[in-house]
From TrEMBL:
InterPro entries hit by this protein: Metallo-depent_PP-like, PAPs_C
Domain Purple acid phosphatase C-terminal span(s) in chain numbering: 87-146
Name of protein: Purple acid phosphatase C-terminal domain-containing protein
Organism: Ensete ventricosum (Abyssinian banana)
Pfam families: Metallophos_C
Source species, domain of life: Eukaryota
Amino acid sequence: MIAISPEYNPIMLIFCSGNHERDWPGTGSFYANMDSGGECGVLAETMFYVPAENRQKFWYMTSDKLISLISTCVREAAHQYTGPFEATTHVVVGGGGSALAKFTPLRTRWSYYQDYDFGFVKLTAFNQSTLLLEYKKSRDGVVYDYFTITRDYRDILDCAVDSCSKTSMSS
């Protein structure tokens, strides 16, 4: 992280814990194993800024100033997204080089779609208001899913991170 700090310091990043960061039963983990004692999460929770009210479940939510700004999601692929969503949406793609593992049989309302294959996401920012996300499978590079996120940022263009209003036009 030190190596990329000069480049990414002004950008707000949201970090997501994996099976080594939060895997001890009863600690808020989605993983039902005791692979580690959860001690790997201590580094992630202390190295990256996390609002005080969310330090125990740092991947779950934040009400920081510039989060929740997306107001429109346009989608034309096989699955139907309806937007704007009324909740924060996370797209998790990839296994960090790990082997494929089956999903849990538990199906929740908040987990919209799962794909059992190797793949990656390509993000294309067309301008300050339009972002295209494309999910491609590693075996052929074909786009299997995509959506465009658009936002009119007129309400925050004049503010710095520490001077933005807590609400925006999308609130």
